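Researcher: Good morning. I'm working through a list of sequences from a screen, and I'd like to move beyond sequence-only analysis. For each chain I'm collecting a predicted structure so we can compare shapes side by side. This is the next one on the list. No need for commentary yet; just the structure.
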Amino acid sequence: MGKLLYVTFDNSQEYSGGTQCAKRNLQSLKDLLGEEQVITYFLKPDKGERNVKGHLQRTLGILKGYLGGLTDKHCKNILNLIAEESITDFFIDNSQLGLLAKYAKRQKPSIRIHTFFHNIEYDFFRSNVIDCKNYSHFFWIPMAKQNERYACQYSDTTIALNNNDSTRLKQLYGRQADVVIPISMKDDYGNHANMQQITNSGKQALFVGSYFFGNTKGLTWLCNDILPHTDIHLTIVGAGMDAFAREIKPSEQISIFSNVPDLVPYYEAADFVILPIITGGGMKVKTAEALKYGKYIIGTREALEGYDINATIATQCGNAQEFIQAISQFHIPYKFNPASRELFIEKYSYEASLKCFKDIIKA
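Model: Good morning. Structure tokens for this chain:
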């Protein structure tokens, strides 16, 4: 393999799952190929006020099918890099950018294109527009579908996060993923197992996640409809979460900590992790993080999507009553759950996913 060009978004959301997964992908390629063989290009979206010319350019971009901050200028820069740097492999880190696969393949048919599907963008945008009644952005739906169709048509390798996404790609575009590489993260915890016994009353639940709609919608539901019917204490930890405290009624059952320097003490103190995620797509990074720290999980289908879990590791809940029942019947004896930690090491650690990237490089 010669040089590889890696293209992704720069959305400044440091703690989002998509950003963390993109960084994992980039670091894996650098570890396998070497820093000097990987050229990066970041798409920075325009967040400033647009003048008339800017609105016109954006409208033309929409008509061309540009998503994710892609513009004529970005396309030109990327295609120039492919030519000038003698790029042999092109890693597109989001299927919203499927149009780039088409342009690159037509310019250089010999280039090997690898597209990473963080989720099924067509389904994600459809949910965002219809469920959230965001009808002014209805055009996102056909644009997402067209870009994903291009990604499937022009990529040499398609990569999905889980088998469900791979099956959905087959349904929509007639091509399943060539490789499945789930969410993973580096193991910076070690074997510091907290074998402290869990008491029978006043159990400690933990939620870790930053302040944004995808987290707060489920948390509001948890705090309003589930917590009052249990005897647990909920600790919420995450960047900007002090703002969430102003959105719910004060309760002795809830403690909120924002922008903490170290998550380890909070994970070790928790009896279990609770994940009431009810929106979004793909796989949730916070689920892998809970497994890393050896935590039992009580969560929704969305929170556990793509993870190979069983009853020794997690309980899946579909409504408030099922959460209440799962909490009341929680019986893990220790704060540290070895089965969770073992699953993380086997399937969701950085070392495990690096083997999958190595297979792509070899191919």
